[in-house]
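Is this the right way to post structure tokens for a design question? Let me know if I should format differently. Anyway, here goes:
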């Protein structure tokens, strides 16, 4: 009886359906992993960590962010890719830290500021006009004092987090760095980006990518 059931056309249809579903999941997972990896290879994230969660330290965090972004944007002029951007910033990490420390000093605060380039895991984040999926990214990390406060996350290259981007548009800021498909993905122009980002997160959890 059992043998007849396993060999029945109905069972074979279920088996074919399961195999098809598995193939679709695998294909979607491969797409998700490739999409996140391709984005991570093209952008340099920015991660600013405040000294603490006090209102004063959180305000100072934004001053340090602005000072570091202003100097970094000068150093990144002419950079055509993420690796070029990293190479342009690497010799000037102390200078970037000093720019942040100077911003603090103007408020009467003298917490140390440390700047480093490192690999980090970032959660899915929504910004003004675009979003980025969770994943491992290369980042310019700025730590203020004890580094025990809330984070500020964004992108230093391409310059998607400068105030001028809201006027120029993400597409213009990302031109020559991100592909049209990547811009459409992070801005939601292709529709369904929330579902696609969830798929990327799911695939990372499944494969231990975090």
């Amino acid at each position: 009886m059992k043998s007849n059931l396993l060999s029945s056309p109905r069972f074979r249809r279920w088996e074919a359906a399961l195999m098809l579903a598995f193939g679709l999941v695998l294909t979607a997972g491969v797409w998700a992993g490739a999409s996140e990896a391709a984005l991570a290879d093209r952008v340099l994230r920015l991660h600013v960590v405040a000294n603490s969660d006090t209102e004063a330290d959180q305000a100072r965090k934004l001053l340090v962010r602005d000072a570091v972004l202003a100097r970094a944007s000068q150093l990144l002029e002419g950079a055509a890719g993420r690796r070029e951007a990293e190479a342009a910033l690497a010799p000037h990490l102390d200078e970037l830290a000093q720019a942040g420390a100077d911003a603090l000093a103007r408020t009467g605060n003298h917490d140390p500021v440390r700047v480093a380039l490192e690999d980090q895991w970032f959660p899915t984040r929504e910004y003004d006009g675009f979003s980025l999926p969770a994943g491992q990214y290369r980042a310019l990390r700025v730590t203020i004092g004890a580094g025990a406060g809330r984070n500020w996350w964004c992108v230093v290259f391409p310059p998607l987090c400068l105030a001028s981007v809201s006027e120029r548009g993400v597409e213009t800021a990302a031109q020559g760095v991100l592909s049209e498909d990547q811009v459409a993905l992070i801005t939601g122009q292709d529709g369904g980006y929330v579902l696609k980002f969830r798929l990327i997160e799911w695939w990372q959890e499944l494969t231990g990518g975090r």
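Format looks fine. Someone answered above. Worth noting: The beta strands are 44-49, 113-122, 125-126, 131-132, 135-144, 151-157. The chain has one domain: 38-207.
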